[in-house]
Amino acid sequence: MHFQLDDEARAFRDDVRAHLDEVLTPEFEERIYRSGVAHDDDFTRGLVEKDLFAPDRRLLERQLLQDELMYSDAPVYLSETTRMVAGVIDKAGSEELKRRIIPKAMAAELTIALGFTEPECGSDVAAASTRAVRSGDDWIINGSKMFTTNGHIADYVFLLARTNPDKPKHKGLTMFLVPLDSPGVEAQAVWTLSGERTNITFYTDVRVSDEYRIGGVDEGWSVLSLALEDEHASGWGPHLKRLLEHAEQWAREATDADGAARISDPDVRRRLSRIAIEFEVATLLQRRCVWMAEQGQSPVAEGPMSKLFSTEALVRAAQDVNEFVGPDALRSRYEPTAPEDGRFEYLMRFSLGTTIYAGTSEVQRTIIAQRGLGLPR
User: Fold this and answer.
1) Looking at the Swiss-Prot or TrEMBL record, what is one Pfam family this protein matches (predicted)?
2) Are 88 and 219 in contact (CB under 8 A)?
3) Contact, 86 vs 112, CB < 8 A?
């Protein structure tokens, strides 16, 4: 495992930081935050120009890039889903679809959102009821998807649809790449607790060519699993790091009724220490996933361990910080009197959603139990 970074990795990380420091100005960050949309075309093109969009580098360095982007709250969610789906197409798509989609996706010339969850299914993705019915060389799609983040601006949606209702729920599914400018597609805004815009998307007699099918008919679950495995291996440690730095800064500058710096309060120091420890653990769990991938192993259970621990640690940390900062921590982001520019209040709201993204904590625990420990259903 990589417990220390070598000189090449440090130099790459420093280059990434320098670029992000240059382009992520306070004005840019505020505009992205207030919009609730984690995407910006110019920012993404800048990553492509700097060879930071999908760099051909070691897995460790690619993870360092993701860490720096997450730490900086860079607007890359749509870029990440685009790259993820391009990787699935590379493994399971037709040669024609590979030629048509992958080069443009890697050049940030098109974007792809995710269409898995449905309003009535929650975390049970395989219970999808959105239907795709064969009509000659096309498919007719009817249904709806929830949490189609960036579905109002993306070019395509990576859509899970039921093509055979007579088969068991995991067996009658097929994956499609649906152009979002197709007649019959509608996106309606849904705002999350953290202020992010996601969408509910509706599909009414949407006609899609069979050329846009990814993988075999009724074999969508195996195709989807390629994407879910990538999602489940996410780590949220960089948000812990940023919260810790803001909390330490506040504790050094704020004083109690006697004029003593809050950093001298044993309770504050204890909570800060726990955040620091859990950030270190989150980092090592994520690095283990990278190391396993380098060894040709799939982090089937280790990825969910990383995601589960880091998100729940972020919730604990946000609660701790809000408790020792007190009522001032509830002042909103960009409210002039808010401590640390309102990041404590924002990260409290944001942290709660991370335990749902890419599979809820309950889903992660189930994967760890069944696929990691071999326990029965």
Assistant:
1) Acyl-CoA_dh_1
2) no
3) yes
The token pair at 161 is: 């649809």
Contact 164, 171 (CB under 8 A): yes
Q: Where do the structural domains in the chain lie, given as residue ranges?
A: 7-107, 112-218, 233-373
Question: Topology of domain 112-218, per CATH?
Answer: Butyryl-CoA Dehydrogenase, subunit A; domain 2 (2.40.110)
Torsion sign, CA atoms 29, 33, 38, 40? negative
> Which of 238, 250, 146 is CA-nearest to residue 199?
146
pLDDT number for residue 358: 83
Express each pLDDT in 45-102 by its tens digit. Answer: 999 999 999 999 999 999 999 999 999 999 999 999 999 999 999 999 999 999 999 9
pTM: 0.93
Do 7-107 and 112-218 come out as alike in CATH topology? no
Q: Are 108 and 48 in contact (CB under 8 A)?
A: yes
* Alpha helix positions (H), 183-331: 220-232, 237-253, 266-294, 302-325
233-99-227 Cα angle (round to 5): 15
Domain 233-373 CATH assignment equals 3.90.1150.10: no
The phi and psi torsions of 85 (rounded to 5 degrees) equal: -70, -35
Count CB atoms within 10 A of the CB of residue 248. 15
What percentage of the chain's residues is helix, strand, coil (to nearest 5)? 55, 15, 30
Q: What are phi and psi of 23, to 5 degrees?
A: -95, -25
262-286 pLDDT, tens per residue?
999 999 999 999 999 999 999 999 9
| Token output for 54 | 């999908």
